[in-house]
Amino acid sequence: MEISQSWSKIIHDGSSPPFDSSLPLEISQGETRHLLAVEMNEIGLKDEAETKIQVRGLNKVSDKGDCILNSVSVDIPGGVIMGIIGPSGSGKSTLLRALNRLWEPPKNTVFLDGNDICGIDVLFLRRKVGMLFQLPVLFEGTVADNIRYGPKLKGKKLSDDEVYKLLALADLDSSFFNKSGGELSVGQAQRVALARTLANEPEVLLLDEPTSALDPISTQNIEDVLVKLKKDQKMTIVMVSHGIKQIQRIADVVCLLVDGEIVEIMKPDQLSEANHPMALRFLQLSS
User: Fold this and answer.
1) Family assignment (predicted)?
2) Fewest CB within 10 A of the end CB: N or C in the chain?
3) What is the C-alpha to C-alpha distance for residues 81 and 250, in angstroms, rounded to an integer?
């Protein structure tokens, strides 16, 4: 199902009209504008690259009243890898989870292809905006059973050939087809989890520290798969990572988050030029 042809069936809340990104942002008095004006060509992206995800004025406060996200606004172009980095507790994972409603954002703050995600059926949204977590969790059964899980919920059974193709996309050979989760290393299990996510045919892939528990070889395997997905399938990938070098290896653009605010957006090779004092200190200590 093409997402652009299905909004009339999927959007069930008529109070949230499509967002027009050509309109200026309304900034109330005293509010800091956190949408950084970064031209596409300044970060090495084509001007005609369409925005896939838009975040506008996203706020979150903890139960104790602490600010987690402070009026975050950012455009994420389609077909690129965006890295999100910053100190622990800066709101990176919260921002990521808002993009497919693992944390429910307020209405009219997060948009997919110009449509408020709060008005999209949540299961449909999570198929189109898939997520890979820090540690893989596989279901009981074989690797093939895991990969078939998502399509099966929609009443579709993947053929053996389709499973083999998804294994190949995740850089796993056909010998993994009948293996159980207990036979896999953490790195292999993470790639199976990736293949399971790809079985839903997502247009966007969210990754929350997906290689932090992996060895260097497994990490490189995952990175190679992500770059290939971007290159071959034009997939939009948003990745939270504490690994500055990893972000520099694979990201097209980097979003630097400090204390719930976006303080820098730049190309990976320009990170040393960050101006924000806390961001600069974080980058220096992480290098």
Assistant:
1) Belongs to the ABC transporter superfamily. ABCI family.
2) C
3) 7
Strand order across the beta sheet in which 67-77 lies: 67-77, 51-61, 110-112, 115-116
Q: CA 126, CA 111: separation in Å to the nearest integer? A: 14
At 110, which CATH number? 3.40.50.300
Q: Which two tokens stand for residue 207?
A: 């990754």
What one-character DSSP code corresponds to residue 6?
A: -
pLDDT 10s digits, 12-29: 443 444 444 333 333 333
Is the CB of residue 204 less than 8 Å from the CB of residue 112?
Answer: yes
Q: Among all chains, which residue has been given the structure tokens 């990976």?
A: 268
Domain that holds residue 189: 3-286
Place of tokens 């400090």: 258
Domains held by the chain: number: 1
- Type and span of the H or E element at 93: helix 92-98
- For the whole model, what pTM was predicted? 0.82
Check if the beta carbon of residue 226 is closer than 8 Å to that of residue 250.
Answer: yes
Return d(Cα 260, Cα 152) in angstroms, integer.
38
